[in-house]
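A quick aside before the break. I want you to see a complete sequence-to-structure record at least once, exactly as it would be stored in a machine-readable document. Don't worry about memorizing anything.
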Amino acid sequence: MTTTEQAPAPATGPDGARPPAHRGLRRLLGALAGLVAAAVALGGAELVAALVGPASSPVVAVGDTVITFVPEPVKQFAISTFGENDKIALVVGTLVVVALYALLIGLLSLRSRRLGVAGIALFGVIGALAAATRPAGGLLDALPSVVGALVGIVALLLLVDPLTLPARAATPRTADEAVVDRLRDALSMADRKGSGMDRRRFFLTGGVALGAAAVTGGGGRLLQRRFDVSNARGDLSLPTPSSPAAALPPGADLAEQIEGLTPLFTPNRDFYRVDTAITVPQVRPADYRLELTGMFDAPRSYTLADLFGRDDVIERDVTLTCVSNEVGGQLAGTARWTGIPLGDFLRENGVSDRSDQLVCRSVDGMTIGAPTRSALEVEDAMIVFGMNGEPLPVEHGFPVRMLIPGLYGYVSACKWMTSIEATTYDAFDAYWVERDWAADGPIKLASRIDTPAPLRHFPAGRRAIAGVAWAQTRGISRVEVRVDDGEWQEARLAPAVDADLWRQWQLPFDFAPGSYQLTVRATAADGEVQTEERARPFPNGASGLHSIRVIAT
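That is the input. The structure line, written in tokens, reads:
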């Protein structure tokens, strides 16, 4: 067949515009191009972060910045809502925001490649600034974000190119050529009038880009394991304490008899964790130094071997409590801690009597302001390097942290501690004080019902109402329980162990079928009775009585 004919026009509107379905598919693929480019950018950044350090990853760096600048009520909401999973929620939220941003960048790139390039460059700038300006950051920490942005830009341009083909002029074609064109159009979705698409090339490029993102991102995460100090920690053996913890009296742990009651000691794997570190700092024992600066007569530095080799190693049982703990919350736990006496250590180095604040710094730049007086006078205040018979877990401050019984962790329990500066409150505001938390943080008298569990059905009959109460440094002398609007009934206390430990309690009660409101209150050894006045954790800890509803059937 040799006759010629005008190639049939594609299906367009009266004004030559592309059909709606075509426009919709192009936008969808454009958005997908932005998402894939973001994945390539993050993958490349993770690979470079394996060379620089995990905290330089743009997701981590931006997440750390969000933690720093987010309002305190939002932080408290995150902790109360997600508990110890708050950092996971933050990372997931950051990735969701990045994904939405990437979709928008992909759509903008269909209109202007310059806008797409600028959008990814902005993402890189934000990540670089967040990494370089964090307390323990530097210029090198910006490198992963910069490299990630560059490879993301290249990926975006390669992905957008098949979606913005130049127009093909409608020239006379033979019938055979027209058939070939129609077949090509069907396969590639090419539109002769206006911009076109080569769908096959887009998916081929996208597949390669996704593969590259998976390899670089996954490889980067694997390579970052070289920073892990778990093996080095496992090779350490704790020194034998010259002053071991007091022996427990018989029957000290009622959890062995009462199902659902919190045990006297909290296993390391179950111990609560609240801090601002998205990635857990990794400090090699051989590299560790504890620097003493500021108002000391003899400022100096100590290695981990120096601390392990001292002859005043002690072992103490202490309950810790987070200031973010709500009434009846789980952000409290007890461990057997191994370390050296903080007060003796400070006096040995000539801490000045003009110092009223110790600014403790973590390897990640966190600052904790502890009262010098408490550090000197609280008997069991410690520089800690052991927890429940083993070196500190990495997530709980390995290799060294501070602990002052009777104070909330935000003013006493610096993890991954690398320096102590003797200074004053007038001279420096630590991290949490800058954010309007109280400068002093004495732990408030508290009690909690562990069993029966709230709103759970259980068989009617005789059953123990049980829980824990704490007033660190003072001890618990009395716990009472009220059922509905009845009289307060005194509970049985577990044998006393130490004033720094919480104390278990129980009240056997005969439950008839029905619903009951249970309330508990404690009395400290100094006579203070737990207040009914409710207060939220901010700015100096929660207060009020724990009350739950239970159902007997």
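Two observations worth writing down. The chain has 13 helices and 21 strands. The first strand starts at residue 4 and ends at 6. We'll return to this after the break.
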